[in-house]
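Working notes for the structural subgroup meeting. M.R. asked for a predicted model of this chain before we commit to crystallization trials. I am recording the input and output together here so anyone reviewing the notebook later can reproduce the run.

Input as submitted:
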Amino acid sequence: MEKIAPPKYVMRILTTLRARGYPTYLVGGCVRDMLLGARPQDWDLCTGALPEQVLELFPGSVPTGLKHGTVTVRLGSGKAEVTTFRTEGGYADHRHPDSVAFVSDLRSDLSRRDFTMNAVALSGEGLLIDPFGGAEDIRARLVRCVGLPERRFEEDALRMFRALRFSARLGFAVEAGTWEALLHKAPLASELAPERIRDELEKTLLSQAPELVCRFFTTGLMAAFARPPQAGEESFRPLGKLPKKAGVRWAGLCALLLDQGCVDAAEGFLDALRLDKRTVSLSCRTVRLLASPLPASSVEWKRLLHAEGTDCAAWTAACADTFFGGGHSRALKAVLRSGDCFSLKHLAVSGEDLLALGLRGPELGRTLEGLLEHVIEHPADNRRERLLALAGGEGQEGLWTAGKS
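Returned structure, recorded in token form:
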């Protein structure tokens, strides 16, 4: 397994704090990833220094969460989050601590964390501090709560989603006691902000095992948004064959949920989770197209491209390949590579050209659309002189007949 070393700027932050007498450690996910032999994407440190002391030592840093003791330290092009050792009070809303107290004890800080694999710290000399058996659970590939799992989930209900997300991302099993507590405490998920649920769902959709998103629904965590699926994880396996892009996987998920009767409409499901308007629109249109006869020729693909746009066509083709087979993406790419015209902006004439012919108002719009339909069927005719001749009357009867077919 590759030995991962922290970047120089991270070690500089650590040694600077320690030189001032503040105990400081790498902590949490970055240590977990290092133990797995994976290079961390983010670096977190915990320290005995108060936020104000961290800010004083590192001018230009950002107080990203002073209430919770977090400062984002920037050195050159690198950044790391530095958080003061702390303990937390109760969680009345099952999400945020009612109070935070800064402490000087690393173990107390680690004891408040969600899972044993994240309750590990590493000293500057490479000494692992692991009071809850996180390294052993990482070796055993287990997601296990620190302490009593029901209490952990009562404190922060989002931890239930994180448990499933980590399971999908890392290929870990959820430890039996943690799993039972999750099933028991699943109703608490209804008190969470939809945006936070959406984010965990999306990260799982983009993980190495997106089919495990099924567990969000079978456990009851998504009861406020959807009914449980009739089939198991195997029916969600096609999600992993879709391009690893959030939008198309949301569309694929909606298609599966609709097919299994989990939701009544894709739009209502996505809106409830506060997805952006573009993703909602493209997903709903993709689902609608999947339920209709799919294009069977280049002409039909060009008509779909004109009506729905390139992104929607690509999502539809990818989902169709995944769910039905048939080489739809290959056919779409062939059309796009051909350079054939399928939109008004690529038509060899413009509205101004038709104005010069004396066309106005609705007649001008109908003529442009008719010319485009003609070019879709006869791509070689996308020449200015030919289209002006057609628009001016030459062969016009044949043109409009083609446009209405």
